[in-house]
Amino acid sequence: MLYVERIRRVNCTIPPASGVDLNDLRHQSAALQYAANTTFGAVGPRILVIDPQKNRAHDLAAQIALFGYTTVSCTTLNEVRLAAAQQPPAALVCDLSFRETDRIVAASVHEVAQLSPLNIPTIFITADDTFANRLEAVRAGGLAYFSAPVDVGALVARLDEATDRLHPDPYRVLIVEDSYWNSQLYATILNDAGMTTAIANLPAQALDLIAEQIPDLILMDMYMPECDGIELAAVIRQQPELHRVPIVFLSAETDRNAQLAALARGGDDFLTKPILPDHLVASVRSRIQRARVMRSQMVRDSLTGLLNHSVTKEHLEREVARARRNGTTLSIAMLDIDHFKQVNDTYGHAAGDQVLKSMARLLVQRLRASDVVGRYGGEEFAIIMPETDGAAAVSVVDEIRARFAQLHHRAGAIEFHATFSGGVATLTNDSDAATIRENADIALYQAKRHGRNQIAQAGTPTPPTEWHISALRPISALPSGHEHNSSAADAPQVLLVYADNTARPIVHSWLLNAGYRAHMVADGVAALTYLARKTPDLVLLDVQLPGVSGLDVLARIRMLGSDSAVVMLTNADTESIVLTALRRGADDYLRKPLDPVELQAVLERALARLRLSRNNTMLRRQLLAHHLQVEREQERAVRVQMERLPQPVAQLPGYSLAGRCVPVPDAGGDFYDWHAPVPGCLQLTIGDVVGRGMPAALLMATVYAALRAATDARSSRLTLQRVVHALAADLDREHTFVRLLHATLELDTGRLRYVDAGHGLGFVRRATGEVVPLDVGGMPLGLSGDLYAEGEIWLAPGDALIAVSDGLRATWTQTADPATMIAALGAGADAATMIVERALPAAEAYLAIDDDQIIVALMRSPHAEEACFAT
């Protein structure tokens, strides 16, 4: 079954000069093919928008129509009477400034309302918010009252209430009753009350029915063969996701103790047979109402009213299982509002909340009742679309995207627009709920990366990252009077939409002779057909066209997100319409009849602006791609750095050893390492490669490997000399150096031999509190030869070797020098882990320090001698 239930055609009848409604011209490519095989749902409720200013009435009618209403804009009372007589409206939206042309608006509205046997809800709008106006609106029977400029989202919310559009889902009841006739009787009673029911005459059938469609309430017989109601209730309550479903026992049992025992095993209430139909309906309805309120608070987002993140994921798991079981298709769409942080930062969080609520309302109104819509995260939404293939899902979501982009949002007196991007994925034979959601996320990322305000489908070729940029040659640069090849690949492409059959071929000839690739059409329908297949560089668009007007064609161009330059062609008496067109996205205009010199100047100006705009767009995308590449490289560099950190030593009798690294995002090249080359010996290293990013991370990995390969348990100095020889070529080629502290410890004696190659941040903190720097060594690797002196120091019981990186030293210098900090870290510590834990929280408070922060601590147990003596 294709996606057919609630895609509505919006018949927004704007002033008669507008011609055919643009919304009836559906998406052209995949969308047209989809629409050809689809029966559209009912057209939305009819709304009359009354305002004496034609453009304002047109704009408000178009905005309301985006939410699925049929709208008619009227500028005189005669138009209102005719529209209401033709078909009674579901509601009226009336601007009180209407009285500027007809003095008694209240009487007129009452007159319109009397044309229908129903009481027509009326909403008033005024720019003059006074008590007198509000009183007049109330006396005229006004349902609501808005101050101009109106918040369309709030207006549509009141229209939804007035027209009763958002019907709640019918209550769902599962009847578990072994008697066929009793179950049919209960089902008939509840169905007549507007509820939907499912029947399980065997207890074993209940779980399958619950899994397929979780009911609002389970009406269960208490005594059944093989498995009674009490046992079945306990089985149901074993599943955490079913804890919130009320279970009501229905039985002839009158023993209060038996009833209480049933409630103790998972039941919520008890109804005694026989029960009157009205009593049954009232009891079931009241319990479901309470359960829905409680469930809504747990499962719905408080701002938008949509399902929250966790419940949306549960629905996806359930719909995937159902699609597998029934052999049907399933699609999911992930949507994200573009640049939402900028909306909050620019217009305030209240405006951002209104954008989220408008998005949620549009999704609910434009989708089927069987679709699941959830707020997945801050500005991210998820749509689960059962029995919908990928092409249909893309078509539906793209239509919603186009409508959302046209919505006017307000922050006080400021009006702005917002857009969203989306990714669509379809269930395949080898995918599960997690996979299809991940595929939709990937497609969403592709849509974001390729310019936003578009829908991408997983598994299909990604649209090009930029519009085709022609070499825009100005007309003045072409030799006059010379015939040029209009099919040249580098020539700008122009679409001429001109209704005048005499002038059209003449202008077309001018364009061809000037070197353009020009195509001409005579009406708006032909123009829209052409624009569905191609994106010209420039459109010469006649305002007055048969059928679809020039304004409608312009609206379609901008709705598609095209960056084509648009120059309107107007008569002298239609310039007021052109001013409207300029506000809606036209780039320039020309008066008819056209003059070749003026045409040349306007085309050059429009194409020059287009070229600059496209070049700027290309540069922004290249810059974004560069930033993304740098971020990926930084992530890989940090991963390389963190993968080289050592694992804990399994056995280190008489000692404790700990280390920790807090890397900067772009990888500073710092590292530490320890290992036991032979029994009874531990080698420890802390180093800093000068540099950043992937080069520093790779060089760090090379140093790490060289140290492991060149290790000599007899001498730290010999180990370092071998490393210098192994790294000489790499360090010389990279023009960098490495600061290093390398130490070898004899575990039984506590003898520590070390070489400090320009590191300078190693200390021994004595048990007495004295701090002794490790100051024997030489220059960093890469700045001198291989002549290093080896220092020696002994770790007594309670002594600790502590080495830190430059980044940690920079953090400490804001409060104390390193030696003072080392003394404080070791005071009272009985393990190396305690020393490390004391050091790093202080460092994390200064993450503005732009370097890796490392500390390594090796502590000899205060009771080491006693342990050795006992042994």
Task: Please give the structural blueprint.
Elements: H1 29-36, E1 46-50, H2 54-65, E2 70-74, H3 77-86, E3 91-95, H4 105-113, E4 122-126, H5 131-139, E5 142-147, H6 152-163, E6 172-176, H7 180-192, E7 196-200, H8 203-212, E8 217-221, H9 229-237, E9 247-251, H10 256-264, E10 269-272, H11 277-299, H12 309-326, E11 330-337, H13 340-347, H14 349-366, E12 372-375, E13 380-386, H15 390-406, E14 409-411, E15 414-416, E16 420-426, H16 433-449, E17 455-457, E18 493-497, H17 503-513, E19 517-521, H18 524-533, E20 538-542, H19 550-559, E21 565-570, H20 575-583, E22 588-591, H21 596-643, E23 655-662, E24 670-675, E25 681-689, H22 693-710, H23 716-734, E26 738-746, E27 751-757, E28 762-765, E29 771-773, E30 777-778, E31 791-794, E32 800-804, H24 806-812, H25 818-826, H26 832-844, E33 853-860, H27 864-870
Parallel strand pairs: 1-2, 1-3, 3-4, 4-5, 6-7, 6-8, 8-9, 9-10, 16-17, 18-19, 18-20, 20-21, 21-22, 27-30
Antiparallel strand pairs: 11-13, 11-16, 12-13, 14-15, 23-33, 24-25, 25-26, 26-27, 27-31, 28-29, 28-32, 32-33
Helix pairs in contact: 13-14, 18-19, 21-22, 22-23
